[in-house]
Design a protein that fits this description.
Elements lengths: L1 E2 L6 E2 L16 H32 L1
Antiparallel strand pairs: 1-2
Amino acid sequence: MKKCLNCQKEIKDNDKYCRNCGCLIEKNSHYILVNILTILVTIAIIILIILFIASYMLSR
């Protein structure tokens, strides 16, 4: 048995929805992809902020 990623209750392997919270059960690859994209977007925002600060400092 696996656990629901939303409520952490045990669910059967062939369930499409959690019987406790009703959350759609996605494959782990979906959650991994979302996490990787979130990390990449965060890194890109940090780099843009650093570049903005650097350009501001150089223009002074």
